[in-house]
Amino acid sequence: MNRVVIVGASAGGLATAEALRRLGYAGVITLVGEEVHPPYDRPPLSKQILAGQWTPDRLALRGQAEIDALNLDLRLGVAATGVDVAGRAVALADGDHLPYEALVVATGVRPRRLPGTDGLTGVHTLRTLEDAMALKARLRPGRRLVIVGAGFVGAEVAAVAQGLGVEVTMLEAAPVPLGPAVGDDVGRFLARVHLDHGITLRTGVSVARVLGEAGEVSGVELADGSVIAADDVLVAIGSVPNTEWLAGSGLTVHDGLIADRYCAAGPGVYGVGDVVRWHNPLFDTAMRIEHRTNAAEQGMAVARTLLDPGRPHPFAPVPYVWSDQYDMKIQIYGYLRDHEETAVIDGDLSGASDSRRFLVAYRRGDRLAGVIAAGVSPKLLRGWRALIAAGSTWDAAMTSAAA
Amino acid sequence: MKVEIDDVKCVAAGQCVLLAPEVFDQRDEDGIVVLLDDQPATESHPAVRESALVCPAAAIRLVEP
């Protein structure tokens, strides 16, 4: 193999390129990125960048010398517009055609938007550096920010904005924020942390429309007709995979690029990162993971398979994600979606104490599917991760927790 | 190989400790990385390189001759 094209120059695409070089691949690597920036890190956007603790130069995933050493054919600021799977070539927006032997699709996701908000100043989404800088410039003491969606992005921005003196209202359609993701007990606990910090949280409400005056956002109208005034509105209602450029290619797309346990999506085509829905054999489930850690691990797994096609490597990770909210670092190992039971292993979720320390385990079928924790020792957490990685039964995990 | 860590960037994911426990550990109170060996033995190099690659905070830097 002598020609790899990687479309997507963020964490997943970069990790794939880096792993290929580390494993000794000396052929051509073309790395295509729609953004003009060299690969940069996104998790700090809703944390240190928004809070003003870091300047954007700290986001670079690698220094210029490290990027140079990878000897890439780097195409930044240009989008891929199509792929000819049978002919093994990618078309770029600038008219160029890139032949490949292996194609890695790492185009990520973009934020879902609310209809009728285009061109309205003060309506934000958060995915890129430009998004973060635009929002940051508007967050000042006394201003009113309405956040639509109380997921992790919404919650992190709420915490930072509140710390900057902004008056924050969070709107959530579900009765409990993050309920489907982490369960109602943990969701209610996290909601209470927001309320304790002075955030206004309204659950079970849906947004009818975003209001504007003279091109500037003025508020949000709810389905019941009531209006919440706002200087800024952050729309944080999930993401859409960037797969439009694959239309007509014959590759299967269904809320992400569909791939097998080796992350293979078609002849010579692999998926890496947020964009791909692959079959994780550890959980025997198709999953699409929008986590920073997954992008790097998946890039490494795909690089190994590309260089050793006779011995493809199933990608069977324990997903991991963290979220910083106020003084809490929430950590999740495993796959909590579709869980059937939770057990509080440590701490107290009732709100009776001020403690922010907790560890909750999740069951799916007869298996330990995951844990969520804050404030517990890393050693303890690694023990739980090892149980998940080993496919421990729920009963065995509960017995070892009680020991 | 010389290993450098940025404990301000570190997000306490602990991926490095899973891969190379002889080189990395985590502080008990907040999970931030602790470098046990800044010039690890040759047999640890592949695991250390993998740690640098997957670190979700890009907080591990390797200086290789």
Could you please describe the fold and organization of this structure?
The complex is a heterodimer of chains A (403) and B (65). Chain A has 403 residues and is of the alpha/beta class. Chain A has three domains: 3-110 and 240-307, FAD/NAD(P)-binding domain (3-Layer(bba) Sandwich); 113-237, FAD/NAD(P)-binding domain; 327-402, FAD/NAD-linked reductase, C-terminal dimerisation domain (Enolase-like, domain 1, 2-Layer Sandwich), CATH 3.30.390. Chain A is 24% helix and 31% strand. Chain A contains ten helices and 27 strands. Chain A has helices at 11-22, 48-51, 64-69, 129-136, 152-163, 179-182, 184-196, 292-307, 378-389, 394-402; strands at 3-7, 28-33, 73-76, 80-84, 89-92, 97-99, 102-105, 109-111, 123-124, 144-148, 167-172, 200-203, 207-213, 216-222, 227-229, 232-235, 239-241, 257-258, 264-266, 269-271, 276-280, 285-287, 320-325, 328-334, 341-347, 358-364, 367-374. In chain A, helix 1 (11-22) packs parallel to helix 8 (292-307). The longest helix of chain A has 16 residues, at 292-307. Chain B has 65 residues and is an alpha+beta fold. Chain B has a single domain, classed as Alpha-Beta Plaits, CATH 3.30.70. Helix content of chain B is 23%, strand content 22%. Chain B is built from two helices and four strands; from the N terminus they run E-H-E-E-H-E. Chain B has helices at residues 15-19, 45-54; strands at 2-5, 24-26, 33-35, 60-63. In chain B, the strands form two sheets. Chain B has a two-stranded antiparallel ribbon with strand order 1-4. Chain B has a two-stranded antiparallel ribbon with strand order 2-3. Chains A and B meet through helix 1, helix 8 and helix 9 of A and helix 1 and helix 2 of B.
